[in-house]
Amino acid sequence: MLGPGGRGAPGASGTLGTPGASGGPDVPGEPGIGRPDGVTARDLPDVLDDTERARLARFRRPADRERYLVAHTALRLVLGERLGRPPRTLRFGRAACPGCGEPHGRPVLAGGGAEPLEFSLSHGGRLAAVAVSRAAVGVDVEPQVTSAAVEEMSAVLHPAERLLLEQEAPPRRTAAFTRIWTRKEAYLKGLGIGLGRALDADDVTASPPGWLLADTRLDSHHVALAAALPAPPGRRGDAPGAYGTRCGVPADRATS
Fold first, then answer.
1. What is the pLDDT of residue 111?
2. pLDDT block averages, 10 residues each, the chain of length 256
3. What is the C-alpha end-to-end distance of the chain, expressed in Å?
């Protein structure tokens, strides 16, 4: 399960997939992990739209094409099941960016519906992750980084995150950095600002106010989920500019 102490975020669920992997299904109603047995691109239904198929055709490496196909098909299948709609008919758009108000924020379902449904998609290495919730949600999956990447990127982190890395023994530092980075990307995708927000603005070693962050390791990958908690009564959403102004990076790069 994705959740500290077994706790889950209300109304959120997740599915992870990797070709040829085995394991248990996801648990509806809380963050969870599912790993379909022996799934390959040949086993998948044809549900992608023209835009997704055009992007698929641009990948040169077969592994990249299969990862994209599995991830985006999984997203449509999960959303179609939750909404009771044919996966092929789903259409996607972008929410307004909370940094500037322009339409390059969190991916959304075009047309909405009676019950708002938020989602997030990520794929990295051999894994793909889908998260679905009634509130804002973000998910990220990353293979463990190299020690060179830790040296290069640690300086951009929050001071509390840098301190945690400094306290880790060198052999464990790459795993600690990848865990922090995955949690940070999941949180920023949940906010809808993505990498348009300064990477040192938030400490994700614990859950930021109003959010539940959880993570796990799977097949040498790190997976993190960020789910928004219910807002206090009377509180409204943040106005454009609340999360910084360096925009232009989609909130969920993996779905673009």
1. 75
2. 32 39 34 50 85 94 89 91 91 84 82 75 88 91 92 93 93 94 94 84 92 90 92 53 48 41
3. 28
Query: pTM (2 decimals)?
Result: 0.78
Q: Which residues contact 127 (CB under 8 A, 6 or more apart)?
A: 16, 17, 18, 141, 218, 219, 221, 223
> How far apart, in whole angstroms, are the C-alpha atoms of residue 139 and residue 142?
10
What burial class does residue 169 get, using C-beta atoms within 10 Å of its C-beta: 0-12 exposed, 13-18 middle, 19+ buried? exposed
DSSP summary character for residue 132: E
Question: Kind of pairing, strands 127-133 and 107-109?
Answer: unpaired
Ordered by start, the domain boundaries in the chain are 4-230
pLDDT at 18: 35
Longest dimension (CA), the chain: 51
Torsion of CA 191, 192, 194, 199, to 10 degrees: -30
Query: Who's near 225: CB < 8 A, 6+ residues apart?
Result: 2, 9, 12, 14, 31, 129, 131, 137, 138, 139, 186, 213, 214, 215
What pLDDT is stored for residue 125 in this prediction? Answer: 85
| CATH code at 4-230 | 3.90.470.20
Buried b (16+ CB within 10 A) or exposed e, 72-91: bbbbbbbbbeebeeebeebe
User: Can you give the length of the chain in residues?
Assistant: 256
